[in-house]
Amino acid sequence: MFVFIYYIISNKILISSRIDNKIKKRILVLKKTRILFFIL
Question: How far apart, in Å, are the Cα atoms of 3 and each of 8, 9, 12, 34?
């Protein structure tokens, strides 16, 4: 039972961290494109 609960929690943390990483990457790309636009 405890192992099952631990498994679910770890899975949720993994999924949320992946989503966070995707969002951070998008924000980074947005910032880079803005800098490029400012240079142009």
Answer: 9, 10, 14, 46
Residue-level pLDDT, tens digit, the chain, 40 residues: 688 888 988 999 899 999 999 999 999 999 988 888 877 6
pTM: 0.53
- With CA atoms as reference, report the closest residue to 1 among 19, 9, 23, 22: 9
